[in-house]
Write a structure and sequence with these properties.
Layout lengths: L4 E6 L5 E7 L2 E8 L12 H23 L8 E7 L3 H18 L3 E5 H7 L12 E6 L4 E8 L2 E7 L5 H11 L7 H8 L21 H17 L3 H32 L3 E5 L6 H14 L2 E3 L10 H13 L15
Parallel strand pairs: 1-4, 4-5, 6-9, 9-10
Antiparallel strand pairs: 1-2, 2-3, 6-7, 7-8
Helix pairs in contact: 1-2, 3-9, 4-6, 4-7, 5-7, 7-8
Length: 332
Amino acid sequence: MKPVILLGIESSCDDTSAAILKNGAILSNCVANQDAHQLYGGVVPEVASRAHQVNIIPVVDMALKKAGVTKEELDGVAFTRGPGLMGSLVVGVSFAKAFAMALDIPLVEVNHMDAHILAHFIDEPKPQFPFLCLTVSGGHTQIVLVRDYMDMEVIGKTIDDAAGEAFDKTGKLLGLSYPAGPIIDKKAREGEVKFEFVEPRIEGLDFSFSGLKTAILYFLKRNIKEKPDFITENLNDICASVQARIVSILMNKLIKASKQTGINEIAIAGGVSANSALRAALQTEGAERGWNTYIPQFQYCTDNAAMIAMAGYFKYQKGIFSGQEVTPLARY
């Protein structure tokens, strides 16, 4: 039987990525980052879309060469249809459509959030169905009940801001560069949890981070008024305290979801799943509660095309393709 070789394309935000998958195995996963957004303290959609136009052809070419595959060997193109920034998605979707049309091969649209979850099937160990996945990124915070590769139900979600936003907005208040999440993580390891931030009281399995962001803002204003050098003198401890509260909010809801569903197969995914404190908390709780826990490799936590190719592979096997009329969806 001829092997299935897919090109995966990811362009939902500011990273341009391409990957090659062969029969469920990732042969290459290339990413072009955009440093320009650091100047603005956040992703500028117009800047991001223009950079995707510059990066996409070299990144795809690199992915093919690293995999030792020619474009004529491809059996399909899997691409992120959404959710994401519309300008960024347009570049990836347009390229995927043109590439597939030129080669006369199928198009496979992928939901970016589903792909984060299905990144767990790139490497061993792989979760058993059903499992719970805490999916946390700059734009999303969800608890998903995963019954099968294409049978997922969101059972908890943020009612306002995402966990990643809480990290980035806190970083901005502290004068840290963008993206602030990894910087806070690093500084937190050198600090102690000395400051208390109240955990939001939200019913059910939903999350809220807007109140926490406001509490951090007022906390900093109050202390800076009393002592102008407060942030400089306490930066590591502030980072440790903020991170501890964000992680506790996430873990407490995940524990609640496990109790309600009776599921002990527990995974995390998305950009924030690269956070060392969250990864450690999952492993600690897992050991205490008898969970089987799953954490992706770092390269599969942030936005990447390998997860898009993997998600596309499961749809390709079932013959679920898109036509040339497909358009990007900022909200999928």
